[in-house]
Write a structure and sequence with these properties.
The chain is an all-alpha fold. 87% of the residues lie in helices and 0% in strands. The chain has 2 domains: 104 residues, no CATH class; 213 residues, MFS general substrate transporter like domains (Growth Hormone, Chain: A), CATH 1.20.1250.20.
Length: 328
Amino acid sequence: VGPFYIYIYGPLLKYNVILGAAVGAIYLGVGISAGIGAIETYVEKVSRKYNFEYGKSRMWGSLGWASATFFAGQLFNINPNINFWVASVSAIILVAIILSVKIEVTNYELEKAESVKLKDVGQLFLLKKFWFLIMYVIGVTCVYSVYDQQFPIYYTSLFATEATGNQVFGYLSSFQVFLEAGMMFVAPFIVNKIGPKNGLLLAGLLMALRIIGSGLVVGPIGISSMKLIHALELPIMLIAIFKYFAANFDTRLSSVLYLVGFQAASQIGASLLSPFAGKLYDIIGFRHTYLILGIMVLCFTIISMFTLLSSNKSKGLEGNITDIKQVI
């Protein structure tokens, strides 16, 4: 991260914005976006193996994020490059930690992992329940991510000066992530109580509430309260999506489902929807655009009440083959 940002990415952007953006997109997509998904699924698989809740381990990621955000702002004022070098050192420490962790893999688990073939992944795209999940991801989480992209710009515009808005937003973000960490500890109990499907629906309703609320509230206090809803929604959504995978799909494909069915689908959808949202910001403003996006999320959440599965209706390849026959 450090050498790339300082010696490659930054100079390229100054030399040619399009070339710099292209190179940066490749690095960020492979090194950051895909890397985050790989780590998330790794931790989730380990949590299932050793019978601890994924949310309780993910909580520490939120605490780390909050701490990093707090110090990054101060370091940025000294020299932005310090943050990039700190990120590189942190990555090296992460690699050392992962190498030091010994996961006991039984012969059964090894055979189960090696039994996954490319055709098993391809079969996912023939399942009706997979496409219903994709519809939820694109209609709910994708639209929400598009809303969240430009939210800091709107937030800072509500203050007397942009500098004051940026400062308050930094403090609010740190506070929100600390709340998010606490919610990560609580979210597994909530999702276990109401079920994965209802967990996803609850997360969708919270997203719709935040987006629509952002278009209705007036002033810094109101918009700050909408920002804090993210601390409730994100943990429930993350826990629920993994539990939904485990309950309704072949657990061998949980990583593929998260990376393709959740992350890739939401990012592709966001790349297609972002220009549309940008045009709306220019034409009708942030508040009215938020109302449109919020209503979209609410509609897809309501549709998902009837399309997402309430319980495990099929297990393993046998269940998958049954679904494929039904589709055919």
